[in-house]
Amino acid sequence: MEIEEKDKNYLFHPMTNLAAHEQTGPPMTVVSAHGSTVTDRAGRDYLDAMAGLWCVNVGYSHPEMADALREQTLKLPYFHAFSSMGTDLPAQLSERLIEMAPVPMSKVFYGNSGSDANDTQAKLVWYYNNVLGRPEKKKIISRRRGYHGVTVLSGGLTGFKNLHDGFDLPLPMIRHVRPPHGLWEREPGQTDDEFATALAVELERFIINEGPETVAAMIAEPVMAAGGVIVPPETYFPKIQEVLRRHDVLLIADEVVNGFGRLGVPFGSNAVNMQPDLMTVAKGITSAYVPLSAVLVSDRIWQVMLEGSAKYGSFGHGYTYSAHPLAAAAAMKNLDIIERDGLVAEVARKGELLSELLHAAFADHPNVGEIRGRGLMAAVEFVESREPLRPFAAQGAFAGAVYQGALAEGVITRALPAADTVSFSPPFVVTESELERMVAGVRTGLDRAVEAQR
Ligand code: PLP
């Protein structure tokens, strides 16, 4: 049986139209990858403009990552962290994360994915309020278009309708508010600052309406990724935080995509003036070589968690793979490479080039509504008409066609589910000529999509 047949017959694909896949099988079978290039079974090379799912930051098949993982596998492939058990690398990684955190943090809790880490965040926030004797303060505010995962709780935090439908989500304590997506949400003539003020005022009204004594936390990506690469106005988070502080609502920064340099600065919180009480990281912490996520907890929260021991005994949350030594080895080596090779500064430099290339290739096109991004994270949003501004009726179909057209050119981008948008998030080691070829491939994809409409 061909490998594609095996896939079609036996592999239950995530985020895939199941009935369509049952007919077509996989469009390609990736068998190897190096740097920014992935290769399929037929031997065809593709430039991966998305670093997998925004995550392979040091590039594919880095020999030093392989060496570090082999060494750790032969030394200590696994031991657990339950019941106070210690292992060496996770302890070292924790110190490193606390030292590099964008705001003062106190402790690190490990998981295996961004989704489970955001579930941990909700449990921490609830535990915190239970210890403080405020059992009614439990609601969590998220934003439409925000992406925070797919587990029973985090799937509801994600502000995409298609991740809720059919799953009875979100859970009842979750609320969604308007995102800072200027293209569609800003009133005509509103400045960036006025737009930020309007969103903050709206948030405050929302919290007051819900009852501040029932609202525990707000979760937000500094720069939204899957929701369309939405960069907030500069004053957005300072104004939002003022509101949250006034009502004793905690702020959780979801740095799963932004963290560890994607924006050309160490963390998204640095980029957008965010001062979170709790932080979620994953993806770029190991460049996805081994699954790992972490929740960083500030001292204010930690002191209350400590009081919880007297009230509830042993902290009843944790995974078999929490603080996995192999994942910690991947993270340590990954962070070594990023630091030694100055990759965050490289992201800032290459990000400028990416932005120039995108503007040159797309700015004048009648179907391009907006080009946006920061560092090596960018997006092009398509519209049916610019004047007057009008989206395509079948949302996402046009970006899907652009994606297909680019794929035919050997460039892998991503048609984002919540917007008619294709995104760019290449490995930090991408070369200038690769960036040029990525942008050119997507531009050809756009020409093909326009052609197909005629
Ligand atoms: N948070 C953000 C910002 C993400 O982009 C993602 C995944 O794309 C997640 C959380 C969920 O992470 P995972 O897919 O590892 O569960």
Task: Walk me through the structure.
By secondary structure, this protein is an alpha/beta fold. It is 42% helix and 15% strand. It has 16 helices and 15 strands. Strands 4-10-9-8-7-5-6 form a 7-stranded mixed sheet, with helices on both faces. It has a 4-stranded mixed sheet with strand order 1-2-3-13. Helix 10 (236-246) links the parallel strand 7 and strand 8 (250-254). Helix 14 runs parallel beside helix 16 (432-453). The mean pLDDT is 97. Bound molecules: pyridoxal-5'-phosphate. The site of pyridoxal-5'-phosphate has 15 residues, from helix 6.
Average per-residue pLDDT, rounded, comes to: 97
Runs with pLDDT <50, length 5+?
Answer: none
Q: In percent, how much strand structure appears in the residues?
A: 15-25%
Helix fraction by DSSP (H/I, runs of at least 4): 40-55%
Name the ligand types: pyridoxal-5'-phosphate
- Helix/strand/pairing category: alpha/beta
Helix count, per DSSP?
Answer: 16
Through-space gap between termini = 40 Å
Strand tally, please? 15
Gross morphology: globular
**Rg over alpha carbons:** 22 Å
User: Biggest sheet, in brief?
Assistant: 7 strands, mixed
Largest sheet, order of strands side by side? 4-10-9-8-7-5-6
Question: Can you summarize this structure?
Answer:
The chain has 454 residues and is α/β, with parallel strands linked by helices. It is 42% helix and 15% strand.
Q: What are the SSEs and their pairings?
A:
Layout: H1 3-10, H2 18-24, E1 30-34, E2 37-40, E3 45-48, H3 51-54, H4 63-75, H5 88-100, E4 107-111, H6 114-131, E5 139-143, H7 154-157, E6 174-177, H8 182-185, H9 192-210, E7 215-220, H10 236-246, E8 250-254, H11 268-272, E9 278-281, E10 293-297, H12 299-312, H13 325-340, H14 343-362, E11 368-374, E12 377-382, H15 397-408, E13 411-412, E14 414-416, E15 421-424, H16 432-453
Parallel strand pairs: 3-13, 5-6, 5-7, 7-8, 8-9
Antiparallel strand pairs: 1-2, 2-3, 4-10, 9-10, 11-12, 12-15, 14-15
Bound molecules: pyridoxal-5'-phosphate.
